[in-house]
Structures
1.
Amino acid sequence: MTTKTEYKVKMESEIAELEAKLASIKEEAKIKAAATAAKYDEATHDMQQQIEVAKGKLAEVGDAAEDAWDKMKDGMEHSWVSVKNMFSAAVDKIKS
């Protein structure tokens, strides 16, 4: 049979072990959070650049003469597909 003192020492040891594991998990979470934040920053920067490209193309379409409009529209459509694909890729990068 264990004494009260032995039991207390045993439980203090087990609690200390759990505290050490918790500290390790917290540190790992901080590292992962920093890595995730870096992925978000990079991906959102890429997304913003693609949006700016699309805005530029749209401005060109708006400024185009009526006779050049169809050609500009085709270019805008092509750019828009590219923007959406890159946007999706950036979102996938964040999620992974």
2.
Amino acid sequence: MGELLKTEELAQRLQVKPDTIRRWVRRGLLPVMRISPKVFRFDLIEVLATLRDRGMELGGPRRDI
């Protein structure tokens, strides 16, 4: 297991807005650990692998899935 991040921390790492992370979670596009209905944690390694598998470019201009 990699580093566990809060929504805001993951958004900062991926250079997107926290609302984008929340939207991706609602769509089932990101692996997420639900601590409670409103509290999520993300395994950075799993998220990066998932995005890579989906063909997302990281660190570039903001993109929405």
3.
Amino acid sequence: MIIGTALHLRAEPGKCIECSRCTEQCTASLEVQSMVLSGSMDDAECVLCSGCVDVCPKDAIRFSFRAGFK
């Protein structure tokens, strides 16, 4: 039985150029850039809309799947 979702956002802080486009694009008004820089994209408010992924010029944010998520 699967609980929750295996799809999540993954950040690569070393690629971030701190342009703030991700935060500006966030439909949930999250501080996405801070999340990227900390390396933790887990936030219950995130609806996985892909806005931050789409606007990141350095691909510092991307979708990923959690293996063995139950």
